[in-house]
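Onboarding guide, step 5: your first structure request.
Type a short instruction followed by the sequence, for example:

Predict the 3D structure of this protein.
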Amino acid sequence: MWALEHPSAARTVRLFADTPAGLLAVLAVGAAASLALAQLAVLPSSTVAFAVLAAGHGALLATALAWAGRPPATAVLAVALVGVAAAASGLGAFGPLAYLAPPLWICVLARGGRLAALGLGGPVGWKGVAAGLLVGMFLGGHLLVSASGTLGLHVRAPAMRDALTALAYDVGANVLAAECFFRGALFNRAQRRWSFATAVTLATAAYVLRYLVDPLLPMRIELVVGAVFYLALLGAINCWLLWWSESLVPGILSALIFFTAYRAIGPA
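The system replies with structure tokens like these:
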């Protein structure tokens, strides 16, 4: 793994070095301005949703790329691709396909080892792929059983368009940005400075916090507690998958399966 092969250089890097602070400030101001304009009825709520989505996921992906040593233009393009995908997702049946642009672009960047610092670009063994699939199926299956048995929710089959839109969103924004930043960037950088346990704790706590501040998360106390439990498990296991397999791909697979299961539950 790149992080283990370059220990001396890695320890000299501050935890938040190379963070694109200027870009993050612009995104924060843009999201806040869109919310304010929506309150004044200047902008429709859909526009605000796109702006906030692009700012949140774009910030995570842009920071991950900056920490991986990519030039500033790469971070700006990451935000632009996520923003365009968010806006295009509501335009007709094929709109959600725009979410394929960010992961395809990440695949192009990963060629030649340019994203090795994030755990992307190297070979992915079948054991790692199988482990990611099994973790996702176990946590997703446990969530479905637990939610239907104790939280007053039930398993439902969403409409095909809604299911594909949600999957595209996870592939191109939600899971992609979270895994690249919290595992590929934050955990990978933290484990070069501190112990494995400390790095897992830091990355997982930040990951759980990201979803707790998500306005889409229902604020019923039992649902919040359940979300913390499952997201903490998913985050910690995905850190281990990256460390064990030396690839971010198994964690991406496990998270995609888990969120697919999550979207299959709803109020009874």
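Each response can be followed by summary notes, for example: Confidence is low (pLDDT under 50) at residues 4-11.
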